Amino acid sequence: MWRDKTIVGLTIAAVVVVVVSFFLPSWLLNQALFGFARALAVLGLMVLWRTGLVSFGHALYFGGGAYAAALLSRYYEVTDFFVLLLAGMIATTFVGFVLGFIIRRYRDIFFAMLSLAFSMILYGVLVKTEVLGSTDGFAVSSPTFLFYAPEPGDEAKQALFVALVIAGWIAAVLVQMYLNSTLGRLTTAIRDNEIRVEYLGFSAEHAIHVKYVMSAALAGAGGAFMAMSLGQVDPDSMVNWTASGELVFVTILSGPGSVAAPFIGSLLFELLRTYAVEFLPHSWQIIVGATLLIVIFFLPGGVWSLLGRLRRAEG
Amino acid sequence: MAPILEVQNLQKTFGAVVAAKDINVDVEPGEIVGILGANGAGKTTFVNMVTGYLKPSAGTIKFQGRDITGLAPRKVTMTGIGRSFQVSQVFMTLSVFENLLTALAIAQSPGTSMLRPLRRPELIAECEATLARYGIADQRDQPASQLSQGARKLLDIAMAMVSKPKILLLDEPTSGISVEEKFPLMDRVMEALKAANVTVLFIEHDMEIIERYVSRVLAFYQGEVICDAPPAEALADAKVQEFVIGTEVHRETHGGTVDA
Fold this sequence. Notes:
The complex is a heterodimer.
Chain A: H1 5-21, H2 26-50, H3 59-76, H4 81-103, H5 108-128, E1 138-139, H6 154-179, H7 182-192, H8 194-199, H9 204-230, E2 232-233, H10 235-238, H11 241-254, H12 261-279, H13 285-298, H14 304-314
Antiparallel strand pairs in A: 1-2
Chain B: E1 5-14, E2 17-27, E3 32-37, H1 43-50, E4 58-63, E5 66-67, H2 73-79, E6 81-83, H3 96-107, H4 121-133, H5 149-161, E7 167-171, H6 179-195, E8 199-203, H7 207-213, E9 216-221, E10 224-229, H8 231-236, H9 238-254
Parallel strand pairs in B: 3-8, 3-9, 6-7, 7-8
Antiparallel strand pairs in B: 1-2, 1-4, 4-5, 9-10
Helix pairs in contact in B: 3-4, 3-5, 5-6
């Protein structure tokens, strides 16, 4: 594992980020929390994208993970971080596994729109169901960590961020190991030629199912983190199609080049949105949209590809 | 010796069109069978049915005594039948080495071992040996999209062979290959296939290739096998002369296209 330069780099970066986080102002720590929570979902979307698949409905799992954690907190008064995170992941892994049997048969626009349709069903259920908080959603208690119960506020956010970095590191390392495995390497092979994969004796649908469930679990973890970070869940910001769109936006912004890219891209997205709202409070979407256009035209490999360009320029 | 492949009363219809009609063929282990026929004669339909790409409308296909009729391509491959394609089916954005390594890893990684690292020393060594055997070691690091037609065909066949099939079906291995390239390519392929002791069925339009490499000819016309004989006998057959070779001569003279 330690022979992989990416894993070594991730480890060093995680340690640096944790140390730096103790010196960040509260607002920036918030941005990092939201960004890294979203990055977990984007990591899963990146795996799908490498296979040539784009999901326009991953808010189903992002919001699903958030609501699973939030419901456990609200109705069973569970505050333990590990239990809430596991609840988010288990719920979305199960849903992803079941829906995967249907969705693995579809490709291209059908895959994208079917994902969207499933997410909008959850959105419809949430906004119409009073016990699930309806359109307002509901609050989530500040998390505790086994025997450590930080003070709600900055202390809780700091603890949650450290936990998020550790979870992000574990997720990124596991995804990196997966991508280096035979099954993981099939991502590009399936995108290139499914017929050949079948005639080599492996089911492309099975491989896509595995990737889909993985992406659902990662999005569920991200959603659970987002619920704990915000202290609130609501259908519009977490399950609606715009939330899925944001995840796709960040995936494109990040690029598929590395498992580290979603973390950088997600953080950039949070900062971009914050400054865009600051400059154009009523039409900040113009800045965000223009940025997406610039990325598509000039950085089709996402911000991660900048590193490659810099290396080539130097060498 | 029991046939390795038994095809009985095989039929395929697409609506009112009969693409394959009552095909009966037994193939013995070690045979090299050439499949001849004009466009739309049913050659590729036959190969597609044997390899699971198309489900037959009627009839049975047995491989080593086991009924494989209608099995999916993946399952047919796992039973020990490999195939290559008229338009080479390789992973275009991957290098030649990565193409072959992926194929080898799938062939040697049943079940959960698919989670083992792809770049394992034993796989890499076997991959290098296979590249040398098929004469594509020089293009090792080139993306498959940049290969010549001939090299891409060799890669396609090498990928089909890594699972060590008992039967290999080749769909026009020399189509799109220059006259100068075709014999060296076929020599290389046949040498590798003979060394692997694999039974071969291949679709071919080139009579020189048929005469030089096959031990038996199946000639197709309008979905039926009209001749099943050794090459010299088959090429002299009146029906083959009229319905197959005549068409080939006509096509070579007037520049037609080949079927898919």
